[in-house]
Amino acid sequence: MNVLKIAAFSDGETGGNPAGVVIADALPPAAQMQHIAAEVGFSETAFAAPADGGGWRVRYFAPQSEVPFCGHATIALGATLAMRQGDGVFPLVLNQARITVEGRRNGSVVEAALQSPPTRSAAASPGLLSEALALFGYSPQDLDPRIPPAVAHAGADHLVLALASRAALSAMHYELEAGRALMARAGLTTIVLVFAETAQRLHTRNPFASGGVYEDPATGAATAALAGYLRDIGWPHGGAIDVVQGEDMGMLSRLHANISPAPGSSIRVSGTARVMRD
């Protein structure tokens, strides 16, 4: 089965987060998709097939588990569909939501944007916060009180921990198996560690132990969840944020999120994507 490899949310023709994309006449059995995703080895692979009634039925698999929604793999899928079918907006049917992705060719890269599932957020419980701080070796003094710890959702649940300094973000480290256990207990897909350089420019790191991946260099689903949470707390985002991710991994990635004023509404997350050459 042909797997296209696309780096989503790239910094032009470099950086970005690699994703696998498989487009088939019908989705393979789940066990086969899981096996392919493990062989590909990227944090996620998107599998798409024509959906009844139009659009595309999509499922996402990490090397060790299926996830309900993956932003960077959706961007990679949008880029692939634009290259195959021409520029356009493509309806997607996920396991638990219906969204769209847009792809438009621009030279050697493709500009792509997704509309996330609806967003929601809730304060992190004291127990979850205590476990997360212990996992990373942070103390409460390392946190930015302007963005309280929360569980944010935009198709999947993410724990948001805002740090008071860029140095604390750079120093992120944890044990993969301990992170996997915490995320499994709490039902988290990832943890979003964020430093707000300004109200509209944020730096993030994204441990993805639940999928067997230490860290993602670009995470569209988590960016959508973060943007929705910032809207919920009245953060002065001015209608959009720019997220810089992957720089501590040497895989600089850039994500842009447009934030509409309607509570709980979809977040538009956009960036560029490039085909990876073997």
Averaged pLDDT, please?
A: 96
Q: Give the strand order of the largest sheet, numbering strands 1, 2, ... along the chain.
A: 1-2-3-4-6-7-8-17
Total count of strands = 17
Measured by DSSP, the beta-strand proportion falls in 35-45%
What is the CA–CA distance across the termini? 17 Å
Label the CATH architecture of the largest domain: Roll
Quick one: CATH class of the largest domain?
Alpha Beta
Structure explained in plain terms:
- The protein has 278 residues and is of the alpha+beta class.
- It folds into 2 domains: 4-115, Diaminopimelate Epimerase, Chain A, domain 1 (Roll), CATH 3.10.310; 120-275, Diaminopimelate Epimerase, Chain A, domain 1.
- The protein is 24% helix and 37% strand.
- It has 6 helices and 17 strands.
- The protein has helices spanning 30-40, 71-85, 126-136, 166-170, 176-186, 220-232; strands at residues 4-10, 17-23, 45-50, 56-61, 66-67, 88-93, 98-106, 109-115, 120-123, 150-153, 157-162, 190-196, 201-208, 213-216, 240-245, 253-258, 268-275.
- It has an 8-stranded mixed β-barrel with strand order 1-2-3-4-6-7-8-17.
- Strand 13 (201-208) and strand 14 form a beta hairpin.
- Helix 3 runs antiparallel to helix 5 (176-186).
- The longest helix has 15 residues, at 71-85.
- The chain is globular, with a radius of gyration of 17 Å.
- The mean pLDDT is 96.
Q: What labels describe this entry?
A:
Diaminopimelate Epimerase, Chain A, domain 1, 278 residues, alpha+beta, 8-stranded mixed barrel
